[in-house]
Amino acid sequence: MCGIYLTNIPFDNEEITSKLNSISFRGPDYTGIEKVNDLTFGHLRLSILDLDPRSNQPMFFKNLTIVFNGEIYNYISIREELTALGYKFKTESDTEVLLIGYKHWGKSILDKINGMFAFSIYDSKTNILFSARDRLGVKPFYYYWENGKIEICSQIKPMLSGKKVNDDAISMFLDCMFIPSPYTIAKNIYKLPPGNYMEIDFNNNSLQTFSYWNLKPVKIKDISYEDAKHELHKLLLDAVKIRLQSDVPIGSFLSGGIDSALVSSIAAKVSKSKINTFSIGFDDPKYDESKIAEQYAKILNTTHTTTICNASDILHLIPKLTDVYDEPFADSSALPSLLLNKVTKQYVTVALSGDGGDESFIGYEHFDSLVRNKRIMDIPYILRKFIANSGLLKLFGMDSYRIKNALYTKSRNDFIENIFSRKGFLLNEKKQEYMKHYQGYKSWSDIFLQKAADLNIKLWLENDSNVKVDRASMAYSVEVRSPFLDYRVIEFARSLPMHFKYEKGRQKKILRDILKEYIPESVFDQPKRGFAVPIGEWMRKELKEEFLEALNDDFLNSVPNLNVKKFKNLLIDHMEGNEDHTANVWKLYVLSKWYKEFGFGSN
């Protein structure tokens, strides 16, 4: 896990060093800067495999130069294959395997590797730059491209100087609480989408992007439940095993949920040594899962560390949030994630996590909401609209956002889309261009819940969950590996009958039944709490003055496309305790902090 940088813009060494220093937390063990032809390569190394300096980057092989961020989990088998073909290796790193693999197979190496990665390889003979990002977008890849000038980096911060804000991206953020790829907060800076590679031919200054992996139309397997459970368990065993390869201490995050419990259970089974597990607890019992996690740890015989935090612990991390999440990002669970990684780093450098289980195995609360409100969508739209406008919902205490959404939305596909955002709630214009980028999901499955799960994977997973985990872990130089994000697990899960995953409101059914082989069901069958903090309450108390100062008229009037009057009414309602508008208030607060941090104001 590292930070990469590359450019053909003629910055001097001092400027390049300054750019790398701004994200030095991504790789504190070694900083490498090399120039090849007109390209300058920069690399920040967090040493995980082959700690010897021989594996520092940029790395060279004949006419090729690479900068690489991530891990190739099946690098040993690929190295054995290349060795049989006559290649010799000077290191024990996955970087060299990736580089020589590209030399032999070219872009087809992408079909062979299993990992999380973002890398660039330059061929000095052909003057062509090849770059790629992993299938699920676990690792970030930003690039600036204009008039033949390229700048590539693991984060956007080193590229922001002199750039103008993308007003459309602000609107996307206010819809979603993140900015979805390929867009970014700045004009002419983009994210390479997951499962894509990019080729730049410097001979004619052309840039092209191509997809090498995507979700495919669903084909349901003809398989019994017991066979499916066996196959999935076998697949998860391998996904965990290959993620335990490390030359530094490794542990596992352990919450009260199903996913991290299963990952930790398997890790405890296949690891050659006793594993370390880590959890965060809260002094508010509504949010605390630490006692359940401690029960898991006792059953699994792990060395467990629980950190109980209060409002003060979390609030002190807000400046860190703006520093490391260098695009506006409003998932408040990033705060406890930062604290978890801060504690974890005291013991290990690599940690397994359960991220990705909810997306593939129908675990989020909004999946239940879709099932409940699906019946509403069967009512003719004209009648639904009349009910929504009649005032009956409020009279019977049924005026939740999702019920109103179901009543007002014309089609089921639009209903699924709107679950992931509150389009138009804060904005003067309702429909945004970014959703066109995700319209393809409509043809991936005829199954209602699978459509929602697919959109979760394509929109939410990459742009929210993966961003949260990458930045929170890198902030403290921790590498997080997620077995549920193994593309083989994703593909297998999508091929299973829906009732294997979700049956009569029972979420993640098949994962629960696998977990029973490690932990008694009576222990893990608990209400889902999520990884949340009581931000909404803090806004009204400890943080009230801070929020009101940040959300002043000058700032609000500088936000493009914001319905200022609507937001100010919403803010008053929230502060007076009349309504809970935590998500929308937090979004504007985060944006205000970003404006201040990066010197952007009224456009």
Automatic annotation (TrEMBL):
Entry keywords, A to Z: Amino-acid biosynthesis, Asparagine biosynthesis, ATP-binding, Glutamine amidotransferase, Nucleotide-binding
UniProt binding sites for L-glutamine: D94
GO cellular component entries: cytosol
GO biological process: asparagine biosynthetic process
Keyword check for Repressor: no
Domain Glutamine amidotransferase type-2: 2-203
Enzyme Commission identifier(s): 6.3.5.4
GO MF annotation: an example: ATP binding
InterPro entries: Asn_synth_AEB, Asn_synthase, ASN_synthetase/amidase, AsnB_N, GATase_2_dom, Ntn_hydrolases_N, Rossmann-like_a/b/a_fold
Domain of life: Bacteria
Family statement: Belongs to the asparagine synthetase family.
Protein name (record): asparagine synthase (glutamine-hydrolyzing)
Naturally occurring in which organism (per UniProt): Winogradskyella sediminis
